[in-house]
Amino acid sequence: MIKIGILGDIGAGKSFVAKQFHCPVFNADKEVAKIYKKEKSCYLKLNKKLSKFIKSYPIKKKELAIAILKNKNNLKKIVNIVHPLVRKRMNNFLKKNYKSKMIVLDIPLLIENKMYDKKFILIFIEAKKSNINKKLKNRPNYNKVLINNFRKLQTSIKIKKKLSHYVIKNDFKLYSIRKSVKLIKNQILNERNST
């Protein structure tokens, strides 16, 4: 199984690019949303650590946002509770898709939480800052302070790019993204077949 890790800045279009590989994708953000909705144990742990803020189940993103804006250390507390659950879901995903030729992991903290190994193929999604900011501002619940807090948790973009085997320049045009993905996908498969 070829494991691909997608790296890049918040808003660079990682999830959009991941979909273009047309193979099983593990999207950490979607899994986190499911955890907030369905895992009572997560709520109980968050409620215990952040009882002033986390008061309702299913967990409301608004309550989490208020907790983070009040004190940036709260973000680390949230991550420490939520990330082991994401890792567990990722392991289940890998088991379920073990027969797949290729899978894609779209995990914002893939590098930071050491959720990859030497066999992974890392692809960096590069986008213009102006395009990223435009995309982020269009998101519902856009909050610049929150986004900056999340960025502080992440390894620098320069390091992520250096660690990557491939770079895809995202101009947010479907045709060119599909073309880039197809090229890289073929290259990866050819390399695998020749070894």
- CATH homology superfamily of the largest domain: P-loop containing nucleotide triphosphate hydrolases
Mean pLDDT: 94
Amino-to-carboxy terminus distance: 14 Å
Structural class: alpha/beta
Architecture per CATH nomenclature, i.e. the level-2 architecture of the largest domain: 3-Layer(aba) Sandwich
Q: Which CATH class of the largest domain?
A: Alpha Beta
Strand line-up of the largest beta sheet: 2-3-1-4-5
Report the strand count. Answer: 5
Helicity, in percent? 55-70%
Output the number of helix runs: 9
Unreliable stretches, pLDDT < 50, 5 or more residues?
none
Helix/strand order, N-terminal first: EHEHHHHEEHHHEH
Strand content: 5-15%
CATH fold-level label of the largest domain: Rossmann fold
| Alpha-carbon Rg, integer | 17 Å
What does this structure look like?
- This protein has helices at 14-19, 28-38, 40-49, 61-70, 73-96, 129-137, 144-153, 157-163, 174-194, and strands at 2-8, 25-27, 102-106, 121-126, 166-169.
- The chain contains nine helices and five strands.
- A five-stranded parallel β-sheet has the order 2-3-1-4-5, with helices on both faces.
- The two termini are 14 Å apart.
- It is an alpha/beta fold.
- It folds into two domains: 1-24 and 99-190, Rossmann fold, CATH 3.40.50; 29-96.
Characteristic terms for this protein:
195 residues; alpha/beta; Rossmann fold; 2 domains; 9 helices; 5 strands; globular
Concise overview:
Helix content is 55%, strand content 13%. It is built from nine helices and five strands.
